[in-house]
Amino acid sequence: MPQFSDGEASALLQRAGIDAATADAVMRIDALLQNWRRRAMKRELGQRALVELKIGLDIAQFDVLVAIDGPANEFGEAAGETMVGTVAERLAIDPSRASRLVSEMVDQGYARRAVSQADGRRAIVVLTERGKAVVEAVRAYKYLIMGDFLGSWQKGELAQFVPLLERFATWSNHLETGSERFAAEIAALARKMDSTERTG
After folding, report:
1. Are residues 108 and 82 in the same domain?
2. Cα separation, 31 vs 126, whole angstroms
3. In terms of residue numbers, what domain contains 119?
4. Can you give the pTM of this predicted structure?
5. Lowest mean pLDDT among 12-26, 71-85, 93-107, 113-127
6. Number of structural domains found in the chain
7. Rounded to an integer, what distance in angstroms lies between the CA atom of residue 21 and that of residue 16?
């Protein structure tokens, strides 16, 4: 199947009313995000933190501790309280897997089960002091590494970068609007792909 070249992509964006500078930025950002995603999936920083801090947990177990420690979500539980179902939702995993991982953390002394202060019929899970210490140590490790990297940046660069990154982080909220706005272009891409598959 023929590749969709950068020139073709740029031309498509410009026909859709997106200027050349923005089109160039889109393609460069996409390439950066692809690389970032591959590295993030390997969880390099988190894995290294667990090894160097000599924490006997794997990354999935550590994620459970972070999910237990996480802020109250929007599913109705009282502030500061986390249930096994909350862990499943925060990690986007099956409830049975979340239950198994939480039980492992309880058995190893990183978490404990408790009764909700808001509803005595509801079981919650909280970090023990040991669990809190692990989460705090890994976060501090990450902050040290990132702080060292960003320490070489100019203060003005940081002042611009952080708000822009926060703004960019919401770009996926534009999915619905964007797909509606460019419905014709998206349909044309689908037809082109379909015709290529049938002839190729």
Report:
1. yes
2. 40
3. 57-128
4. 0.75
5. 71-85
6. 2
7. 14
Confidence at residue 2, expressed as pLDDT on a 0 to 100 scale: 45
Question: How would you write 119-172 as a 3-class SS string?
Answer: CCCCEEEEECHHHHHHHHHHHHHHHHHHHHHHCCCCHHHHHHHHHHHHHHCCHH
Structure tokens at 93: 């995993």
Is position 139 within any domain? no
Structural tokens at position 77:
């539980």
Q: How many CB atoms lie within 10 A of CB 66?
A: 18
| Within a domain: 122 | yes
Owner of token pair 């708000």: 163
CATH code, 85: 1.10.10.10
Whether 138 is in a domain gets the answer no
Domain ends where: 96, 128, 160? 128
Contact 112, 69 (CB under 8 A): no
Range 91-112 burial, b when 16+ CB lie within 10 A, else e: bebeeeebeebbeebeeeebbe
Q: Is residue 98 part of a domain?
A: yes
User: What's the Rg (C-alpha) of the chain?
Assistant: 23
d(CA 176, CA 187): 15
144: Cα separation from own chain's centroid? 20
Asked if 37 and 86 sit in the same domain, the reply is no
Q: How far apart are CA 80 and CA 98, in angstroms?
A: 18
